[in-house]
């Protein structure tokens, strides 16, 4: 792809942020002085002093890591026009598109097919794309929906390209443009086509809705295709691979990319490795069918919102100085129809902006599971120094040699040739998908991976419920870099979980998975010591992998607050000491700092507050339980499982009544709600003790003071949703059993404090 045209295909811009850096340093200095104060006054205080010291040591360390993470924030800008000038359209590299779904109830098929349709319609030559859908739910409904969607795609894809439609997920397109009036394009032809396409989409969604409601049996419709689904159990069934649509027309205005449905074999006694397992099967099947050198993967709810995204990603992957620089391009996770002011604190807008851009300036963003384009070679375990374009003897294992035997041991028999081709950069694929179906069945079986390196050295890595971070880490360990790309409009949009329980499930899984990595042989420290992970990237990984661990110091600090008031002792400096102002200053500056991050991102004060509050709630509920989950796993008592997050169907505008309720916190029987409820009870008890003058006399003359009281009030304010939950009806109320358990724990704590 050499060309005289030497303009770069993408550029990198740094952000200066002096004010933030100054604030970060002030906070760090204040925290350090608090530590010094603790050390100087270590004697004459009880047990609360060392506990507070350890907590503050942790907070200080996290502060240092955060400073490192955000030190050089960078952004990237691609130049697709330059790419198109340099590479003729039909010489652009092929890209395989992966969509995963796992449960047709939690992940309604209409959502999945919208994602698929948006991918099929991206602005990229259709003969260079192939879309593979993995269905771990083995659901005939999902399959039926895909078959119907592929028929609709034949008018949808050409329509989008002809009129340069911006949002190519039809459900979004038609809710945003539900009336033709006010549309930019007003030609007669457009109006007619728009109406036809809209009608067709309505029919499609009605069909799927009907099928979901069981009023029609999908098997009546395409019988022969459906027989394989009869009497099938989700967790015990053979592989099903169906070429839903094969593009035999090449690249033309009317053509639609290949679409393949895959439900890999599942057997109760064989581990399936959740999403990581599904991704590896997709990698192999696509390797046999199309073997594209690049692979995009999205979760079933993450539709392509920016039709140029693949072209843009290609700029960054093809435009690096050498091919051995960037392993993958990750787009931020952005959500559509996000609730106003982020009441559940899970839209992560500030996180993606400040932290991810910062890490982008070190070795590159973490791989976050969706909205990411990988080089296939990288997924096959290649090291950057082994990649030479068209290298005839690629080395997978970093010892300089790769024999056929190595390939066989690594990838398995049926896959040796495909892997060798991909590693060599040979882009030959069979001219007919159906020719490779038989081999595809073999690589999708439960037994295929035994004796190979899938999940260990190549492919998506096993051993964590956050397989994404683990897979990205193994790539960074090899010395690869990665790129964060945040285009406007956002590349992909998905659904953020709403309601308390769904958020808790997700956060618990993340905390578990991340901690699993930290406590395994994949701990990033080894990556820095023995492999090519940069030191600051190691810190960045530590920052995310330790999310769950944060619950411990936060819980201790909250408990100390109550303990001090109940026993009339103190763990924070007293009014007459100069150190009194340290915690106050930390509190004020830290909040100004986070507030300014939110305001600069265009978010409201309310959104800032919600994020602060949910930060505290999530940490001592879901994250704490994540830690417990890992401890149980380490003790061999239980296994960690991948619980899929519920994806709510888009709340359309006519459900206005629901809106005000949507942001309200909801509860279920989950034990994760016990610790926050307990903490709330403890603070209320403590404050009541203080207000009613029931505190025992202070032992050393200095009892609890204003700082402890302020802390306690602050905690009550943070846990306000739980206070309301004590009295809320139905799902808005904390279940009685949870309340009793929490009250019991609080009483136990109180008694232990007093005696
Ligand atoms: O056994 C499984 C379980 C899940 N999935 C798919 O994995 C994706 C992510 O699941 P979801 O429940 O939406 O989890 P989230 O917490 O929203 O996902 C984030 O976190 C996960 C790791 O915890 C990553 O895998 C995801 O890519 C990332 O978006 C979905 O497409 C699922 O269909 C499977 O294919 N098989
Ligand atoms: Mn998701």
Automatic annotation (TrEMBL):
The active site is at residues 136, 468. UDP-alpha-D-glucose binds at residues 107, 136. Gene3D superfamilies: Spore Coat Polysaccharide Biosynthesis Protein SpsA, Chain A. It is a multi-pass membrane protein. SUPFAM superfamilies: Nucleotide-diphospho-sugar transferases. GO terms for biological process: cell wall organization; cellulose biosynthetic process. The chain crosses the membrane at residues 22-40, 46-67, 578-596, 617-637, 673-694, 706-727, 733-753. Its main location: membrane. This is Cellulose synthase-like protein H1.
């Amino acid at each position: 792809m050499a060309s005289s045209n030497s303009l770069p295909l993408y550029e990198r811009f740094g952000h200066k942020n002096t004010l933030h850096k100054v604030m970060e340093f002030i906070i760090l200095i204040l925290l350090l002085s608090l530590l010094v104060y603790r050390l100087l006054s270590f004697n004459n205080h009880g047990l609360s002093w060392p506990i507070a010291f350890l907590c503050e040591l942790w907070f200080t360390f996290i502060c240092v890591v955060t400073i490192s993470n955000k030190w050089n924030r960078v952004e990237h800008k691609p130049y697709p026009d330059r790419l198109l000038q340099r590479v003729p359209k039909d010489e652009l590299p092929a890209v395989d598109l992966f969509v995963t779904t796992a449960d047709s109830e939690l992940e309604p098929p209409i959502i999945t097919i919208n994602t698929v349709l948006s991918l099929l319609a991206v602005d990229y030559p259709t003969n260079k794309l192939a879309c593979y859908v993995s269905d771990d739910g083995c659901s005939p409904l999902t399959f039926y929906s895909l078959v119907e969607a592929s028929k609709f795609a034949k008018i949808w894809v050409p329509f989008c390209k002809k009129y340069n439609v911006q949002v190519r997920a039809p459900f979004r397109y038609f809710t945003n443009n539900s009336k033709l009036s006010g549309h930019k394009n007003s030609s007669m032809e457009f109006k007619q086509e728009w109406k036809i396409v809209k009608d067709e989409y309505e029919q499609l969604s009605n069909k799927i809705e009907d099928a979901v409601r069981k009023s029609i049996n999908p098997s009546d419709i395409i019988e022969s295709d459906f027989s394989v689904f009869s009497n099938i159990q989700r967790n015990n069934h053979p592989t099903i691979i169906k070429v839903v649509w094969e593009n035999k027309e090449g690249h033309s205005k009317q053509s639609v990319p290949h679409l393949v449905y895959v439900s890999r074999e599942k057997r109760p006694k064989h581990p399936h490795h959740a999403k990581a397992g599904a991704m590896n099967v997709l990698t192999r099947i696509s390797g046999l069918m199309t073997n594209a050198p690049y692979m995009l993967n999205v979760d079933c709810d993450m539709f392509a919102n920016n039709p140029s995204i693949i072209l843009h990603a290609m700029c960054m992957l093809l435009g690096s100085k050498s091919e051995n620089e960037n392993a993958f391009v990750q787009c931020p996770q952005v959500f559509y129809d996000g609730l106003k002011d982020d009441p559940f604190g899970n839209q992560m807008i500030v996180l993606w902006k400040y932290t991810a851009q910062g890490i982008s300036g070190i070795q590159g963003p973490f791989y976050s599971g969706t909205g990411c384009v990988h080089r296939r070679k990288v997924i096959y375990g290649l090291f950057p120094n082994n990649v030479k374009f068209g290298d005839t003897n690629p080395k997978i294992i970093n010892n300089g040699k790769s024999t056929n035997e190595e390939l066989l041991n690594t990838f398995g028999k049926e896959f040796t040739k495909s892997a060798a081709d991909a590693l060599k950069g040979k882009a030959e694929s069979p001219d007919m998908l159906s020719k490779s179906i038989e081999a595809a069945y073999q690589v999708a079986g439960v037994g295929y991976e035994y004796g190979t390196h899938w999940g260990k050295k190549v492919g998506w890595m096993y051993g964590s419920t956050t397989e994404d971070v683990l897979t990205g880490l193994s790539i960074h360990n090899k010395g690869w870099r990665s790129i964060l790309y945040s285009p406007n409009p956002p590349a992909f949009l998905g659904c953020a979980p709403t309601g308390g329980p769904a958020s808790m499930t997700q956060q618990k899984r993340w905390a578990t998975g991340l901690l699993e990595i930290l406590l395994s042989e994949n701990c990033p420290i080894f990556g820095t010591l023995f492999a090519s992970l940069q030191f600051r990237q190691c810190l960045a990984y530590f920052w995310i992998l330790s999310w769950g661990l944060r619950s411990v110091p936060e819980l201790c600090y909250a408990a100390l607050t109550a303990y001090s008031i109940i026993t009339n002792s103190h763990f924070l400096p007293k009014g007459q000491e100069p150190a009194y102002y340290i915690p106050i200053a930390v509190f004020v500056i830290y909040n100004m700092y986070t507030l300014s991050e939110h305001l600069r991102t265009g978010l409201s004060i309310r959104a800032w507050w919600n994020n602060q509050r949910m930060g505290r709630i999530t940490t001592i509920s879901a994250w704490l339980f994540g830690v417990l989950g890992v401890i149980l796993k380490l003790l061999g008592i239980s296994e960690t499982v991948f619980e899929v997050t519920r994806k709510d169907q888009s709340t359309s505008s006519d459900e206005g009544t629901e809106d005000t309720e949507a942001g309200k916190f909801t509860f279920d029987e989950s034990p994760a709600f016990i610790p926050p409820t307990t903490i709330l009870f403890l603070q209320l008890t403590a404050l009541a003790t203080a207000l009613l003058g029931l505190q025992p006399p202070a032992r050393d003359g200095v009892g609890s003071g204003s700082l402890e009281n302020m802390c306690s009030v602050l905690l009550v304010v943070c846990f306000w949703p739980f206070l309301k939950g004590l009295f809320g009806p139905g799902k808005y109320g904390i279940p009685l059993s949870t309340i009793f358990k929490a009250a019991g724990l609080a009483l136990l704590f109180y008694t232990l404090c007093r005696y």
